[in-house]
Design brief:
Blueprint (H helix, E strand, L loop, with lengths): L17 E4 L10 H9 L4 E3 L11 H15 L6 E6 L1 H12 L6 E7 L15 H4 L6 H8 L8 E6 L18 E4 L12 H12 L15
Parallel strand pairs: 1-2, 1-3, 3-4, 4-5, 5-6
Helix pairs in contact: 2-3
Amino acid sequence: MASAPEPPPAAPADRHPVLLVHGIWKSGATFARMARYLARRGFEVHTLDLQPNDGRLGLPELAGQIAAWVTATLPSEAPFDLLGFSMGGIVARYYLQRLGGVARVRRFVTVSSPHHGTWTAYLRGLPGCVQMRPDSDLLRELNRDVETLGRVDVTSIWTPLDLMIVPAHSSRLPVGREVLVAAPLHALMLHDPRSLRAVAEALSAPLRGRGDLQVAPTT
């Protein structure tokens, strides 16, 4: 697999620590390649392990683990950037929209996250899985005030070939930028050079003014 070209470096004032939040059945180790890729480009990269990671715990409770990690790890009130993969993108959204994360996060990147639910969540009846079903109470709540994310620089990265997020376009957010990467599998979104490059570019892009909301019209 060809190596991804380096994105333009971010201005020092625009660069913040980056926290990567994993998906269901995974851990922080799933970001090994992405973390190395970003570290080589000068990013300070952090991961955490959500526990349990198998859907037994609701997503709001997992979001509380992000809040606890931030309090314990980062200097008080220091800004940081946040990336969520798959379920991690919804957990991160809850942290942003319900736990005050928008006050500190500057860039928010989601990679193949079921913002509007996924039919594969019907395969298990655990609380975290139920909350990722289409039209779940949790997703309706978050999507009703998606404009809250307008206080953060948002990028959603997704693949139309996703067989875990069904339908694949559920990974699109109506806020901020959107990047389509035709990776053939859900898990490859953490390894495909095009996806890695898109992540680095999203984390390097000049920040919009806070509150400069971009919401796509509903069709």
